[in-house]
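This part of the workshop introduces the protein records we will be handling. The question running through the whole workshop is how a given chain folds. To make this concrete, we reproduce a full record directly below:
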Amino acid sequence: MAIIAGYFAGETYGLLGPQMAATIIEEHTPYECIVIAVDRGDDKTLLKKALSDYFVAHEPVVGFSTLGGRQDLIDLAKELKQEGALTILAGPQADTDFRGEKEWRSYPHRFPGLSSSFSFALHGPAEQIVPFLKEPRPTLPAGPGFLLTAEKGVILSNAKKPWDEGFLTRVRWGNLFRLDQGMLTNHPVTTAQVLQQIGCPHASRPRQIEIDYPVSMQKGKKQRVQLLLRGCSFCDVAIDKGFHGVLDREKVLAQISGLPEADDGRKIAFELINENPLPGLPHILTQAGERDLRLSQVNLTMRADWLVQGEKQLREALAIARKMRIRILLSSVGFESFDDEILKNLHKGSTVETNLLAVRLMRRLKELFPFQWAYSKAEGAVHGFIHPTPWDTKETAAHIGKAMDMYRLASDILPNRSVPLIIHHASSLGEWIREVETREKVRFERYGSVIGWWEEAMVKPD
């Protein structure tokens, strides 16, 4: 079996989800399983030849994960399926992308889903596929987490199993491959991930909020759409995973213990996957030291408000890191905007004031812990900054510009390029834009699983 996942050229980071899934498959089924990282520039004809050489006489079983809406990988899956391979859609949003956009059969312009490109989909924990792969002659399954296309295009869907922490402690980081001169070659991983939290606490309970119409469609007074949502309005992960909770600390330390070592004998750098990591970080570092797990660098991705709230624990962690000669890199803070109206529509749950408190804290800690603490883009951080958005006005531009100038945000905080707001069809903003379409009798163009929100993407009826 092979799992194909999207990748960026020139990178050496690991792919936790696919590589953990491949590990589970190898340890619990008769299948060998590798992960193939594919960037946009890879020649798909050469990739298909390499896959043929890999499978030889075996029936090709190819999973696809972490697609990120890439049409080239979707087309590849469809080609492989037509040529007789068993193709499986898994990973984030596998169920919603397999089914397609809500009510797409009644609205032909909506995203019709990917069911024609894949034999079936698997939503949720990877171990759900184990009984299927253990069959001597696998037939299309009907177990937990599976989605199948039945007669007349009807999609049958089974509820996924709950997460089982027993499957989340081991990853074979050496199972990642890249296409090199037409051959699959082992790809070194220098930055891994350690799972401590599944989902996001911000998505733990539903909230009723109002989101403004796009500025281009405002008619005098402000018009809004009321939504019941979880987490940030643009986040499809919140819809996909919600919030499962935090893994047992022993499971986290087991993952750290299994990380590869660099030439100096230290564990390679890893991202601690936890949206609110600071309360437990000092304990993780201390216990790693007590077990003689020689760490090199811990990367954190988190919200601005939890960074501010966790200052005491962060200082404690940095003091421990100084003794252990560990670097802590704040690799990404989800600032997203420095305008309160835009933050409200993104449902960040924080304000510009909170963002600026976080910036001041990041800079202050650099003065106190110059060798242990890293946060700036020059040190490898890429902080969240979403622009443009549907709610940009002269006023919002002035607010953002003022914050940028007063706090010199471009020097160390803001990335070189902002990220335009991306609306996945299954996110809360997908519901928002469909309601706007219904009310105003317009439609917005779909670009695969993404919905265009900008004025040029809007089509008015004749």
Notes: The longest helix spans residues 352-368. Residues 46 and 182 are 5 Å apart (CA to CA).
